[in-house]
Write a structure and sequence with these properties.
Length: 248
Amino acid sequence: MISSKQKIVVQTDLYRCGKGFVIAAIWLAAIQAFFAILNLILGRIGWSSFGSDLRGIFSSWSFVLSLVPFFYFLIMPYSTFKWTIQNGISRKTMWRSQMLSAVIITLVQEVLIVLFEVLADGHPAEAFIVNSSVSTWQGILFELLLLFEATMTAMAIGYFFSLLNRKWKVIVAIGGPILAAFCIYYLTLLLIKLGVFQFIGSNWSIDLSGQAAKTAIIVTLVVSAIVWTLLMMLVSRISAKHMQLRRD
């Protein structure tokens, strides 16, 4: 059972994230419907194409839904911290509540994405039957893991940036990617000079057509995603523990 304070945080996260998606979904639906009707009036498309254009709204909703939680947890951590502290909610409770929010939102997110993709197909019943294969369910579970990984990454970045004042946010936001690009560039040059890529190309060949190779790749991707997700959870936990109210 979760406490009343945790319920407040979870309900707020669900409301804010849901509100953001609804607003974006309404705007996208209105824009796509407008252009579909305009093309129909101008004779650029027929009624069959008009129906396909309208079903494209569901594809747009699926895409937007995959982004909304990421940007929510990227932007809102400090705002959430301020009102939770003002309402007597500790940092630990706040972080645990947001972890629970992230799990619930990711589950709802995946269910709706699958639903929108089925509706966008145009044949919901047939699509559901076809998509009930084992491989498809494995794909859904992997997609669920990737969505949660993205949410945890956004939360870790959001919490970390909440530790910085405005000046350092600008410095890190601009300097961080530039520094990373320089490091990657010079590391690549170093590896080329050392002949690492030539060695790999001549001595390491992988048969991607074999089932064992495919299984190894899948396992590697899953393990990497899990390890990265746990690392991001740790970063967000440490950052949440040291968050302070700022004057700027």
